[in-house]
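Complex 588.
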Amino acid sequence: MSDGRVIKVSGPLVVAEGMAGARMYDVVRVGEAKLIGEVIELRGGRASIQVYEETSGLRPGEPVHSTGQPLSVELGPGLMRSIFDGIQRPLDVIRELSGEYIARGLEVPGLDRQKRWAFEPVVSGGQWVQAGDVLGTVQETVLVQHKVMVPPGVERGQVLEISPGEYTIEEVVAVLEVEGTRREITMLQRWPVRRGRPVSRRLPPESPLVTGQRVIDTFFPIAKGGTACIPGPFGSGKTVVQHQLSKWADAEIIVFIGCGERGNEMTDVLLEFPELKDPRSGEPLMERTVLVANTSNMPVAAREASVYTGLTIAEYYRDMGYQVALMADSTSRWAEALREISGRLEEMPGEEGYPAYLGSRVAEFYERAGRVVCRGADERQGALSVVGAVSPPGGDLSEPVTQATLRVVKVFWGLDDRLAARKHFPAINWLTSYSLYSDRLDGYFRQHMGDDFPALRREAMALLQHEAELQEIVRLVGLDALSPRQRMTLETAKSLREDFLYQSAFHEVDTYCSMPKQYRILKLILAFHQAASAAMERGVALDRILQLPVRERIVRARLMPEDRLAELDDLIAGMSGAMPGREARSHA
Ligand code: ADP
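Predicted structure with adenosine-5'-diphosphate bound:
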């Protein structure tokens, strides 16, 4: 513990003297108002403190008290359904305590101390356990079973006492004997946010995080435990993409971190998320969601912390063996907070005023994603997938935050406001987007879809790229300059765009497309292309081909209910037969 005095206040940055006993990243209480802050620089007894609350009115000479603890989050039942601020204060509780405008210096625990949870042991007395082992479960919400784990640090212990019952998170649910001493276990754990939670080992990505969105799953897939980045020009459909991912991605737990700039951006999140339904269960999506939201009256520094608060909560559920998806919107706002603090620390600025360590901070953030073998003897696996939105000013992807992000993430979904303006949704540009997981996941797709899946995707992408070149020619010299084959390419590319890439988030059937269905629609469009090309070789006129009734069925394929995919198989199998015969062929 260490008590010092404020000597300088510069926005969210406070410098204090007499802090020789403090350590880096210790949480401190600043001033008479006991504002919450964190030591981010220490030189002798002089500490620079990032304060997570408004510092106006704070004066030199006011006391600074170090808690001796790093910034930590509380982990235990009650996280699901919560809406926290950047330092894990539940927004509803602080609002109750202080009204709409959050009072400063409020210390509110992250988790409810009164609530009782029904604890069901899964181990019994006498059993040996180690860190990460599940001691028992709690039905946290209708959708989430919480696993109460032996906390990190306990290498090996024997269960002395454990019994079912209703407990608060601070009551002892089990007693272990660890190296001859009694160790009481509660359902509440704490973990310092800036340190990743330990795992047994990391695993390479292996299967896709299926989102039910065709352009993502087929063309630019993200692996379970993978990383992706999505730029969000205003009105380009970023919110809809994020909602679709939250609702449909085959993740069990969603953590959404909102670092909004303007107050209303955050209000949207706070209003919209609680309205979303989990499509598979019909329950509110919040039953398996944690929201971390920086409210507009919290200073930028809190955004900096919010990212780590969210990550740590996400890792905790990963450790239970869950598939977790974390979304951060937007990481650019977080980077701006870094820039502001760095500026006030008078550090040597890098590109566009961002600190030189921007790249390493961004990398550390995404490196906490991954597929892992969790701690614990059962070797269960969990995964944390991370999707970060960036908001490049003016859509300029060469700016530092986007560049730093693209250097580390493996997937880029390039939202394009020109596509959105043309009402092509999701407005993910197929020419600029990429996934570095495609090759790795091809084994999975081959096995689960069909051996030809990678080839189909390549063929479709080649057609779309060819379309872009042909469109350039058409722009310059007109459609007449194209050969019938080239015109056929344009027709197929259009079909790929409208019947495959386009996907309405608001259509009951179209909103989610299973992988088997995606595979079949793609195959159908390309089967038509091949059969049509062969017919043209035989001399059939393009116009005749374009009038074939089967085209209408291709258009409707994306609206085909999932239980009628066999009809798509029939269409594919009958494609050659649906082409006009050989009558047009000239006799040799
Ligand atoms: P942003 O968050 O980028 O400002 P939104 O996600 O709110 O943009 O999208 C703007 C509008 O675009 C939505 O209100 C909706 O009408 C339309 N839109 C976006 N994505 C889709 C989609 N996948 N399907 C249908 N409409 C969409």
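DSSP finds 17 helices and 26 strands in the chain.
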